[in-house]
Design goal:
mainly beta; 6-stranded mixed beta sheet; 4-stranded mixed beta sheet; disordered N terminus
């Protein structure tokens, strides 16, 4: 996948036995330096109505702003709207397709919700999932398959 320089590989879904949650990825500080860690916390690739696909990351590191970032799979990439204010260590970033009717909690200072207009539809039989900040791929995950209606954590 040609989405910038991959800094760290974060793990993979082995069958559906579970996600290897190895800390990975580098966030961008207010000064423009890349530091901090994004961890893929949960995603749903094969929803059952009324569920919808989603991707959730946790961020650990210094306060950061996310202005030029995107989510991608093996086939497509979609820009993520800029975060309002700073993302702080321990914050959760929840990404959903625009127009999602999924019941989600309200955004808070530590829960940032992003609705993505050109959502990269995740393949049920396996796919690659990337988080991109600027020109750098800061998180890369591969999963082999997903069970319908069950998220991977």
């Amino acid at each position: 996948m040609g989405f910038g320089a991959v800094r760290f590989c974060c793990g993979s879904l082995l069958g559906f036995a579970g996600l290897i949650a190895v800390p990975c990825a580098i966030g961008q500080s207010a000064e423009g330096r890349l530091n901090g860690v994004f961890v893929l916390n949960e995603f749903l690739a094969s929803p059952v109505a009324p569920q919808q696909e989603f991707v959730e990351y946790l961020y650990f590191g210094p306060d950061t702003t996310l202005t030029q970032w995107a989510i991608a799979d093996a086939r497509s990439q979609a820009d993520v709207p800029p975060a309002d204010g700073y993302v702080r260590s321990g914050d959760m970033l929840l990404m959903l397709p625009e127009g999602s009717t999924m019941d989600v909690p309200e955004a808070t200072d530590s829960l940032h919700i992003f609705y993505i207009s050109a959502w990269p539809s995740l393949n049920n039989g396996g796919d690659e999932l990337y988080l991109i900040v600027g020109a750098d791929t800061v998180s890369a995950h591969t999963y082999a398959s997903s069970e319908r209606g069950r998220s991977a954590e």
